[in-house]
């Protein structure tokens, strides 16, 4: 063995022992006639001291050391004179007796410190160096701990971990597939799974009534901080269950994670919020309930004052922002420009200031009387000193825009503390979404989601209005304004599944081509079943108090889907293209 102990292991109880350590040189420091090496491995840092009694040869070896050299040292553990309470090994040091350079290192392109001087692209190019830094090490240790706790919990509940294939058939599931050409089947392609949805349902048909997998999934979609082209799910399915059985089982898993990983306990059941309440009160199907500032519709109060902005609107809604009545004209103008951005989509912003003396000041004073303003203030539950922000327009668009404005104001006011956790379930989603451009329905979740049993009559109706009333037997787990998990009770009756394909506009032939294996399996005794999948990367990031999932993945892609370290994706040579029967029509720009 190259070492008797790790660099995070030694304590005062080891004083007087002769030990051997191996690791990387964090830094070398000289103080008078003495030198110090901070030696690092993934377990911690140990200070190595070279005192006046060290030989000339040993001092010369130390002189030649650089940052990130890999070395082996042998010496005696001593009680440290000047203790360092910031590290676990701060009570001891090792007096160097021999040193062996295992591998010299080039000067790293950025400092391997908690606060590095390297930019994102540079650190991703040298990810293996970035991973030596404590913040990333802690993130991956947290990820490992959470995976371990998930496996322990699900095993204790009788779940089996079963692997499903990565090379499958391309089926429409909401995002673009990554496809893989088959050399042995010219002109045909596999797809990488967006999730193991059909396979886990087939496992239920096969009788494996409690399945889980911590599994890689792939979606070819535009990226942002909380998205990667390849990501990890905690994927689960259960047979002979109803919705409440699934929610209770996985609420138990979530509470176990909070208790065992973060030391936080939730004694009360998580709130179950209907989708309609989430949209009406928060403008989002993933509401952040750590703070108030709920949306309130004031359409009836706003109309009839000869104010065209309000009179022509389908919906008028507002939020009361606490303590912001003192906002300047410059600040309210800046908020107006913020809501006009394309990603928000509002045409403008109306404000009402609820002054401390009980008076009101509004950007629509010309049209609204003090009594009108007082009524609106009461309707949005505003207090003295609050600023009311109002948007008007199409109902769904403005609720969503107002929800985004609420989150923005929560960020500005510091109301979204990452150390505070507010979990909930969102339930009773619409089963279907109507698209005006294509004049057809789409599944709000996926085409295997069951309608609520009490809505089956509407589900079999030919009237668009009835189909829009059908609720899915589905549920999302939301934490701090982030959708972390989602699932549903599945369709297990082949007749209901065929009706779903019919509503979604699939011909019988098309449905059979894409999903025939699943429809056929249901004919051989499919049990009632349901499941859920959690975004494991997002879960880890939230537990780590961060918004981006990137630093909780060992080797992530950047926002263009590129692996900066491997320089992938990349071209393949013509011989390989020919072997796969592929031709490229892309012409590289000069």
Give a written overview of the molecule.
The structure is a single chain. The chain is an alpha+beta fold and 590 residues long. The protein has helices spanning 56-63, 120-125, 127-130, 134-156, 197-205, 243-262, 275-282, 299-302, 308-311, 329-339, 370-379, 395-412, 456-459, 464-469, 494-503, 508-522, 536-543, 574-579, and strands at 18-31, 34-41, 44-50, 70-79, 92-103, 160-161, 179-181, 189-191, 210-218, 230-239, 271-274, 296-297, 315-321, 350-354, 360-362, 387-393, 423-427, 432-435, 440-443, 474-479, 482-489, 529-535. It has an 8-stranded mixed β-sheet, sandwiched between helices. Strands 1-2-3-5-4 form a 5-stranded mixed barrel. A 5-stranded antiparallel β-sheet has the order 12-13-16-14-15. The longest helix is centred in the first third of the chain and has 23 residues, at 134-156. The radius of gyration is 30 Å and the shape is globular. The two termini are 55 Å apart. 34% of the residues are buried. The model has no long low-confidence stretch (mean pLDDT 94).
Which class best fits the helix and strand makeup?
A: alpha+beta
Cα gyration radius (Å) = 30 Å
Any low-confidence stretches, pLDDT <50, length ≥5?
none
- State the shape: globular
Termini gap:
55 Å
Helical proportion, percent range: 25-40%
Query: Can you count the beta strands?
Result: 22
Query: Main sheet, how many strands, which sense, barrel?
Result: 8 strands, mixed
Strand order of the largest sheet: 6-9-10-22-21-20-17-11
Oligomeric category: single chain
Mean pLDDT: 94
DSSP helical segment count: 18
- Proportion of strand residues: 15-25%
């Amino acid at each position: 063995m190259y070492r008797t102990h790790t660099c995070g292991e030694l304590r005062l109880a080891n004083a007087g022992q002769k030990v051997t350590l191996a690791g990387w040189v964090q830094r070398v420091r000289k103080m008078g006639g003495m030198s110090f090496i901070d030696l690092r491995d993934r377990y911690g840092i140990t200070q190595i001291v070279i005192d006046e009694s060290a030989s000339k040869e040993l001092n010369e070896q130390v002189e030649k050391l650089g940052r990130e050299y890999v070395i082996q040292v042998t010496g005696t553990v001593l009680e440290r004179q000047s203790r360092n309470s910031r590290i676990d090994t701060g009570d001891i040091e090792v007096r160097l007796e021999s040193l062996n350079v295992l591998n010299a290192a080039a000067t790293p392109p950025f400092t391997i410190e908690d606060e590095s001087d390297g930019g994102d692209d540079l650190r991703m190019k040298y990810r293996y160096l970035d991973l030596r830094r404590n913040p990333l090490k802690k993130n991956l240790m947290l990820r490992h701990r959470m995976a371990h706790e998930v496996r322990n919990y699900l095993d204790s509940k009788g779940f089996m971990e079963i692997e499903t294939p990565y090379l499958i058939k391309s089926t429409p599931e909401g995002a673009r597939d990554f496809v893989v050409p088959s050399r042995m089947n010219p002109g045909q392609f596999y797809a990488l799974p967006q999730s193991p949805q059909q396979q886990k349902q087939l496992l239920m048909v096969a009788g494996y009534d409690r399945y889980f997998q911590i599994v890689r999934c792939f979606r070819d979609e535009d990226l942002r901080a909380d998205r990667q082209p390849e990501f990890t799910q905690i994927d689960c399915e259960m047979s002979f269950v109803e919705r409440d059985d699934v929610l209770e089982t996985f609420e138990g898993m979530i509470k176990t994670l909070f208790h065992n990983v973060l030391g936080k306990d939730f004694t009360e059941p998580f709130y179950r919020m209907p989708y309609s309440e989430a949209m009406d009160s928060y403008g989002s199907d993933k509401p952040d309930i750590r703070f108030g500032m709920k949306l309130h519709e004031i359409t009836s109060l706003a109309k009839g004052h000869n104010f065209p902005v309000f009179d022509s609107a389908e919906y008028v809604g507002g939020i009361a922002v606490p303590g912001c009545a003192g906002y300047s004209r410059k600040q309210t103008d800046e908020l107006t420009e913020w809501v006009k951005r394309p990603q928000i989509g509002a045409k403008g912003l109306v404000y009402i200031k609820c002054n401390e003396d009980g008076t009101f000041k509004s950007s629509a004073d010309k049209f609204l009387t003090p009594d009108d303003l007082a009524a609106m203030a009461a309707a949005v539950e505003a207090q003295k000193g609050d600023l009311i922000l109002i948007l008007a327009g199409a109902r769904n668009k403005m609720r969503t825009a107002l929800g985004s404005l609420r989150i923005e104001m929560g960020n500005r006011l510091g109301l979204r503390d990452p150390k505070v956790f507010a979990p909930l379930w969102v339930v009773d989603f619409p089963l279907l979404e109507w698209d005006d451009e294509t004049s057809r329905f789409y599944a709000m979740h996926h085409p295997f989601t069951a309608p609520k049993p009490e809505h089956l009559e509407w589900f079999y109706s030919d009237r668009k209005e009835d189909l829009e009333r059908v609720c899915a037997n589905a549920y999302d787990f939301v934490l701090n304004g982030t959708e972390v998990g989602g699932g549903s009770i599945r369709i297990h009756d082949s007749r209901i599944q065929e009706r779903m394909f019919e509503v979604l506009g699939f011909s019988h032939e098309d449905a059979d081509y894409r999903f025939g294996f699943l429809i056929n399996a249901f004919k051989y005794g499919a049990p009632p079943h349901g499941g859920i999948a959690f975004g494991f990367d997002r879960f880890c990031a939230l537990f780590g108090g961060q918004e981006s999932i990137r630093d909780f993945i060992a080797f992530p892609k950047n926002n263009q889907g590129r692996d900066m370290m491997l320089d992938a994706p990349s071209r393949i040579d013509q011989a390989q293209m020919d072997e796969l029967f592929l031709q490229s029509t892309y012409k590289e720009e000069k």
